[in-house]
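Hey team,

Sharing the Tripartite ATP-independent transporter solute receptor, DctP family run so nobody has to redo it. Sequence (360 residues) first:
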Amino acid sequence: MHFSLHKLTLAITGATLFATSFAHANTPDLSDPPPIEGEVITEDLGSHNIRVGLGLAETSPLYISTQHFGDILSERTEGRLTVDVFPNSQLGDDAQMMEMLQTGSLDMTIPSTSPATTYVEELAVFDLPFLLPSREAAIAVMESDVALDLLDQFDGTGIKAFAYHENGYRQLTNSVRAVESPEDVAGLDVSGLTIRTMENPVQLSIWEALGANPTPMAFGEVFSAMEQGVIDGQENPWSTILTSNFHEVQDYGSETRHVYTPFIIMMSERTWDRLDPAYQELVEEAAREAAAYEIQLATEYDDWARDQLEERGMQITRLDDDQIAAFQEAVQPVYDQWAPRIGEDLVAEIQQIVEDTMND
Ligand code: KDG
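Structure output:
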């Protein structure tokens, strides 16, 4: 009797654990990394441990693809190049980690384009709202010569930039009210939402145009600022919102898709200069392969993360085309203010790539 009761308890506990882990899985069914192919460098060209700092968590597509980057380097150099990844802003925020690349106190980081505009101003083109209406268009832009030329402009800054990753479409969350229009952001009889933005003036303009109180802040501080009520909300892709547990302190989400700012995989020029040319070539190749894998993972994550957030209690407002159009109209002044500064030609070139993709 005692034995069977014990068995029953175990069975119930097991079923509960299974149900809980199933309902609260930490990642979707993700594609395995592509096989590692290509020549192995057997010659001893020196050993290097490359330290990569990231803002995001271990469950993020960014972290998983960075591990794959490390696996490529290690397998193709018989373990002479190794990579250690430090997630969760533990080494600093995007701005600090880029400075660390300049001084050589960190080897690599993968920040958003938005804070990287400090080095290459024209990257602010990605901050323009509703510029990249589909993922296909975004990918075509990230692979275009126009966008790749912007990475070359890091030359001379102490930073070497290799490729774009996907951060994803940014969505609004907050702890105050459901948002389905710019008026809900601004609040008619009540005050506008206090929204954390990335540290970038175009992002600030977007939220000013929507009537919010924008508060620029480093990513690593966002969770506690929301927990303490210092800010009402923030905006990030669903995958980041989920993997950073923002749903624990944010009751409302809106599928605004207002901006698509990529990540950039970059290395300290000091680290780069220490690598043998054969290793340099391999790093560039591995960065491009990791980028392609990251974009795939981020795509697989996106809707799944939104649905998970809903299951975990976040009230998510899906917006129809008319509702999105209202947001688009409200942020038009951002183009008037920033397109001339970013460069009308650059904006037009990107818009042309978008149009060509949409017509394909
Ligand atoms: O590693 C990248 C993150 O640090 C950061 O860029 C995340 O999108 C982000 C944000 O909102 O700051």
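Residues 227 and 249 are 6 Å apart (CA to CA).

Ping me if you want the raw files.
A.
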